[in-house]
Amino acid sequence: MSYTLSANEENIVRLVRTRGLISRADLSRESGLSKPIVSNIVSKLINEGAIIEKEIGASSEKGGKKPILLSFVSNYKYIVGVDVGGNKLIAILTDLDGNIINKVRKVTKGIKSKNALTEIIFQGIEEVITVDKTKILGVGIGVPGTTDIKNGFVYYMPAFELNDLPLGEIVSSHFGIPVMISNDVTVNALGEMSKGSAKNIRDLCLIAIGTGTGAGLILNGSIYCGSHNMAGEIGYMITDWNRENKSRNRTFGNYESWFSGNGLEIKVKEKLGLNLTTKEIFDNLEKSRDIKEIFLQGCEHLALGIANIITLLDPQMIIITGGVGYNQYSMILKHLMPFLEVIVPPEILKNISFNRGELGDLGVSVGGVSLIHDSYFLKM
Amino acid sequence: MSYTLSANEENIVRLVRTRGLISRADLSRESGLSKPIVSNIVSKLINEGAIIEKEIGASSEKGGKKPILLSFVSNYKYIVGVDVGGNKLIAILTDLDGNIINKVRKVTKGIKSKNALTEIIFQGIEEVITVDKTKILGVGIGVPGTTDIKNGFVYYMPAFELNDLPLGEIVSSHFGIPVMISNDVTVNALGEMSKGSAKNIRDLCLIAIGTGTGAGLILNGSIYCGSHNMAGEIGYMITDWNRENKSRNRTFGNYESWFSGNGLEIKVKEKLGLNLTTKEIFDNLEKSRDIKEIFLQGCEHLALGIANIITLLDPQMIIITGGVGYNQYSMILKHLMPFLEVIVPPEILKNISFNRGELGDLGVSVGGVSLIHDSYFLKM
DNA sequence: CCGTTAGTTAGTTAAAGTTACTAACAAACA
DNA sequence: TGTTTGTTAGTAACTTTAACTAACTAACGG
What we know:
The structure is a homodimer. By secondary structure, the first copy, chain A, is an alpha/beta fold. The first copy, chain A, is built from 14 helices and 15 strands. Chain A has a five-stranded mixed beta sheet with strand order 5-4-3-6-10, with helices on both faces. In chain A, strands 13-12-11-14-15 form a five-stranded mixed beta sheet. In chain A, β7 and β8 (about 155) form a beta hairpin. In chain A, α2 crosses α3, α6 (about 185-195) packs across α14 (about 365-375) and α10 (about 290-315) packs across α12 (about 330-345). The two termini of chain A are about 15 Å apart. Mean pLDDT of chain A is about 90; it is low at about 245-255. The structure holds a DNA duplex.
């Protein structure tokens, strides 16, 4: 945007956008602002290109001048969202309503240097932008690691074995536009809140089950990262101290023993001596009692972790997604809920809705778009 | 306040208050507002009684007119804070800086009716107000139960066996001033944040150990209540599933087995056949191996719960307070930390500060004051 | 040592711009 | 003719810039 919207201008844009088609007179009534100032703001916004006079409406039964109906121009600006994964990068270009205009995929597997990583991010962003670059509002990026959302700094990305990368500044100065960066799971939660299955939810816990397991938190309607940007690392949660305590030197940090792709694969290998992929494990659930038992133990663990999240945070919705969580959602939920029903009292459990991540593997990139949208355009 | 402060007026008041003594010229420089409008706002605020011209300052070495130093008038309005406990009620009257002007205690033990409870709250508030009633900004109340902070509704108070009490409205219409109500532990956390050991902390978990155990959460600098006003009920957290699962029908909800006054008393009775008060248990810790063992098991449990809080929320500070937690703080911390050091990696643990609740048994009432202060005067 | 002058700072006044409002009105329509 | 939309005109509130007065320090000359 060439200039920042004032509070009243934001309100008018918000109204035009949510109402779809609306006249100046109705805007005045709904915003509480006077008709002249609404006309004034509307003409500014038309000048900006943010809204247009779309069509002429109908008079009321009692007569009167026909209203000029205004409409939001969702493509007067664009946003780029990037999901930097350990195996692949997804970049999307969307309009202001989040409609995906273009999508680019890149392979990131094996990358271990800062230069190679930033280069591939540059390429992804460059290629996905098929519109006038001056119309790009910003780039929102989700990365698998510890980040500081305030300054776009990446502390640690185990997937690339990289430390201390000021990625926000690097990308921002390269393209000359605003860039925001946060943890991928957190960004995914934001995406589901704005465009997925958690619309109008203020307290959300998104559990991403992939190679590992992590949670993204939206609390009081805002991203929650914690004081050292480590909130939601539920892979380290403790639910069965005596058993865990006996079987290893330290629970806190024993990520892989959890319910996750990696965790299941290791358990199957250790206990059954089988080298199966996560997909193969799920394919053989009903065929092998031993595999099923390992899976059920995982589900119990997962249920205990979720019970603790419910206890501490009292969320309105819990979303399960991620590579494994999304693809195997119904299988997981089917076996997870019986455990939860034993652990959590029904009067509490019934108030919490469980959902599949509606956005699937676009969750993080869509969340990246939301990051920019909410900070540089409108917080809806 | 006779009128609501505008954003600029708030800024000026905030600056005068935090700087202590400041001239109009410095206010203009620090606020970014022009000198005339600062003078304008200052004269309004002097008229209101919120600030005064305190003294004449010194010129700089280079010469120039001496500045008139302005000062905040902390007692131009007053706030009432009320701690409604299961045994006693504490009401305090403070000025805008939180200085306690008056304090009243009432016995609430045995109260089981709505009328009796509201009557004693009325009395406490009435008696504590020793200043002109029109100078009272509002009343903030912490109650032991589930509440909706938005409308002052109390869903459930087990201590009084009461349900569905619109306490906020009852008290507000009786005194004709704003009233805010929230859960006592949550309010206590707010108190510690504004006036106690958690100043300038944005992510705080306060653990109140008394008859029972609960947590109050301040996340992103704001009170966090959860979607059904049940956040922080850590008495229900699960940390040792197999052991707990075997010994009872349901873990979730088995409050008393935890580390709490009640929990310890019951454990001592069950295992040792002794009818000891919590105080007697602590007094005999070093004399009885059996009591010590029960206490250490409690500490281990507490450590596991705290480890889970750290994992999920990554707080900056953890405060331990409450009837038991405050009085026995050093004893608890001494035996808690060794467990935590085993469970939580040192690089994570070192970033989290553990503190005693500085406000002691005034934590809730001071928090009630903060509730009103932050909503009706200034969010600092 | 004392009065004068230059330079600096505090706070006010005056003029002008911005943003909002109300009142009144023309255009369009049943 | 009455109703509704959207504009114009005039006004009020608030903020800014520019310029001012008042008050002070430091340094210099006699």
